[in-house]
Amino acid sequence: MFITSANGSYRASDRTRTRLPLTGKSPFRRAPPVPTVAGVTALDPRDLHGQTAVVTGAASGIGAAVARRAAALGMRVVLADRDESALQRTAEELRDTGATVLPVVCDVRDADAVERLAVTAVDEFGPVRLLVGNAGIESTGRLWEIAPDRFERVFGVNVAGVFHGIGAFVPHMLDTAVPGQEAIVVTVASIGSVTTMPAQGAYVSSKHAALALTECLALELAQAQAPIRVAAFLPGPVDTGIYTSADADGVAGDALRERMRDVLADRGVTPDQAAEALFAGLAAGDFWIFTDETRAAELLRARADRLQAAVSPVRTLG
Ligand SMILES: NC(=O)c1ccc[n+]([C@@H]2O[C@H](COP(=O)([O-])OP(=O)(O)OC[C@H]3O[C@@H](n4cnc5c(N)ncnc54)[C@H](O)[C@@H]3O)[C@@H](O)[C@H]2O)c1
Q: Domain Ketoreductase: where (predicted)?
């Protein structure tokens, strides 16, 4: 239920939580987490037991690992994906571990389908506590060589897909929020959301957009004093099949796709490690969540320095 005070804002609960310790030494000089109107700055993962999570792109890779992690915390998990057979396989694997899951075939590019996903999730599993907008696709190639329909597909999944999730789930979360149990909206963006590189312009620009959208959502919900927390997950390389299913255009696109497959296999963390980092960040109450904080800090600092000094991106080419 969305409880409002006389002035129309969310009524703050007096319930507070302590920040859970993070393992390892973070290279970020973090500002203290911003308390929400409910006064909650961190999340005790035990509180998620019995609650509902919805994960898009849950049939494989990071999404499947996030779903596994959520189920291991005792959450009921709605698995949404456009790939029906992979979705059924993942659902079966999770059920074999005793998890309560509901697979729903859904293409996040389709606003009506995402709306139906929200209705089904609430009807079957009750109020949604955690939405993870994870579905995403890669596409490589120089911008003048990428076919327009591929560019549109990337933005349809990576940007419109996130937008449709917000539109379908946030109103419902506002209606069902319980004091002290704020809902959480996570966008799986990318470290590519804060960097730029050649032959990946469609993907990188879509991830910049997904991050900007997510930051705007956080601002809007804070301004509305809504009991919903927002987090942006910016993984570095994770060993998934994202480049195997990626489109590639042109020689540069083919070469980058091959190289990135190797990078993910050689240097990527496992999807389960990525999911672990995500839930640790949520437990700490962080907005910015990374799989590799040291590398992320280097990249962010380099970009901030370049922007401040008005250095052309071309100067970053080796
Ligand atoms: N793997 C990495 O190195 C990496 C790094 C940074 C960010 N990410 C992001 O993580 C997210 C998950 O990627 P992954 O690496 O697990 O890839 P993946 O290919 O293993 O999983 C993506 C899933 O999304 C599903 N999907 C694709 N289009 C969809 C649509 N229109 N509607 C619903 N589902 C759809 C796919 O079927 C697949 O199951 C993506 O947003 C990706 O951009 C991945």
A: 51-241
